[in-house]
């Protein structure tokens, strides 16, 4: 294993947790809400 700086580790974990939250939220959306979400993501 290689050493990783605390700042980099914190940033990586934060991104993973954000992905988990978004994925969990998408499971609860209606098809119309998913279409709105997809359109918003496509604009970015």
What does this structure look like?
By secondary structure, the protein is mainly alpha-helical. The chain has 2 helices and no strands. The protein is 77% helix and 0% strand. It is elongated. The relative contact order is 0.09. The protein has helices at residues 6-26, 31-43.
- List segments where confidence is low: pLDDT < 50 over at least 5 consecutive residues: none
- Helix and strand element order: HH
Determine the number of helices (DSSP H or I, runs of at least 4 residues).
Answer: 2
The overall average pLDDT, rounded, is 89
Structural class: mainly alpha
Shape: elongated
Q: In total, how many beta strands?
A: 0
Beta-strand content bin: under 5%
In whole angstroms, the N-to-C terminal distance is: 35 Å
List keywords for this structure.
44 residues, mainly alpha
Structure summarized in a few sentences:
The protein is mainly alpha-helical and 44 residues long. The protein is 77% helix and 0% strand.
């Amino acid at each position: 294993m290689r050493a990783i700086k605390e700042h980099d580790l914190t940033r990586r974990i934060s991104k993973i947790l954000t992905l988990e939250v978004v994925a969990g939220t998408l499971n609860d959306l209606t098809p119309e809400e998913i279409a709105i979400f997809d359109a918003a993501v496509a604009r970015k």
